[in-house]
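Can anyone check this?
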Amino acid sequence: MLALDNITKSFGARTVLDHVTWSMNDNARVGLVGLNGAGKSTLLRLIAEVFSPDSGRIARPQKTRVGYLAQDAPEMGGRSVLAETLSALDRAQALDRRRREVEEILAREHSGPAHDSALAELGEILHELERHDFYSAESRATAVLFGLGFKEEDLTRDVAEFSGGIRMRIALAKLLLDSPEFMMLDEPTNHLDIEARNWLEDYLQSYTGGIILVSHDRYFLDRVTDRTVELARGKLTEYHGNYSRYLVQREERFALEMAAYEKQRAEIEHMEAFISRFRFQKSKAALVQSRIRQLEKMERLEPPVGAEKPPSITFPQCERSARRVFEMRGVVKRYGDLTVYDGIDLVIERGQKIALVGPNGAGKSTMMKLMAGIEPLTAGQRMVGDKVVIGYFAQNLAESLNYDNSVLKELSDNSQGMTTSEIRGLLGAMLFSGDDVEKRAGVLSGGERARLALAKVLARRNNCLLLDEPTNNLDIIAKDSLLEALRRFPGTVIIVSHDRHVLNELVTEVIEVGQGHAIRYLGNYDDYLAKKAEMEARAAAASNGANAKPAPAPAPIRKEVQPARDRDQDREQKRRMDRAAKERARVEAEIEKRESERAALAQEMNDPNFYLARKDADDLIARYERLGREVDKLYAELVKFEEHPAAK
């Protein structure tokens, strides 16, 4: 068990933690929530002993290790990605070196005190190495890195070549590989795409230690945590259940606490009115003194920590666009030898709320730039409807700010049809409050600049919004505010986001991009996943029955005499169907063949001695990855057969 005993921590005159006492079991999954600046990161650092409390103590079992993932990218360089990840096991590597030294002692000393002492120490070392699964470390490190989105060719690259976001992934991989008894995770999903987030969720669900998690991804919190602790006004309040359950319980608690607060306030006002009325009447002196003593002894309730409503975002009124907002015909986009899109046909209509999804590098941001007219087409046509006014947001737009302007002036100068109150409300929703609006844009952090750039896009009379990761730098409350505004927005929204809650609550259609194509699915993100799973199940069933004899077609009840031209068309249609059926059977057979080979490789790679026993381990891993890409491509072909069975 990990326990906080009367912990206090202040920074200057501001008390972040005020005599906090709290505990968690060694296998608890805790979501730590609270407003920006409440002290969540401070609490994690205290538990991880990054710094010390002003008073109180933190107790945990002996030899228990606490791992901490900070929000800031650590300095790294001079080692490959794999070597840097394995460096998390420095302690175990030191134990392994000591193992070799002890074995040398035993080789020299066959009896006596030195032998007995070395034998006992060797037993402890081997137990510790086995407990941490040290000898399969390289295989586990590779699996973790692949899960977090690294490719095989990345593993040998120097970490200094990567951006801060990718170095954060390496820091997370090191922590997962080290597998401490308690993990403090401060925004671990900030630099992960949806696939990596899904993998991390599954990993943490099977993790045997305790977790305290700070995240602005409510979907992630719901899947990983089973307890929620709210930090507000220096105190911790615990709720049983995940984030969604916490919201319900918090509303219930708020209602009860507000009722108690208002009842006490009414009682105080009643007593104060009595005292004021009868203070100078001798006949009531005893009663007045009694009321005064009651007030002095009364423990005044504070107004309850509210279920804070997100600041409202009001879009300026926009003109109605043509029904067809975008039309793309035969669009091709290449960067040198890399073909991102190969003959895309796409129509976007007014009022649609669409998500672009796909793995990193699939071309989501490229598609947004093509729609916005920022990137030229290699081939094909892009047509924009009449009266369409595009608002495009991407993270690099922060570079276009006027750094000499204050936050308020920068937004005011770039807004259209918004009152001062609405401008301040939008800034509040983007987490600029109080004196923050007077800061110069030049002194803002990268995240603050991105939020201001987003506010500038939202403050104009756009009727089509292209939003590339708009929620990256927003907390949960700000995300809720933006989500509600986008729901009410009468125009068209096309969004790229790794926040699955936003994708489920906002969009009504999903376009999956990748391998040069774009495939549409009706519904939200969960509907898209369900449809994909259904298609994969059908493909697997079809693959299993590919060699079965097809059932005979039912005989027609009545044969009609057809004109010769119709008979020719039917014969041509039948030939196309036959060709499509043969091609589909070929694709299904290829999928089955590659999946069988991949499964055999996976079984071999799961062997703890894989790297020790196989000199060609790296080649086998490369083959495994290549087979995965080939299977994905074949499934994409199969999808086309599902939608257009006679297309070939």
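Reply from J.R.: I decoded it. Confidence is low (pLDDT under 50) at residues 553-562.
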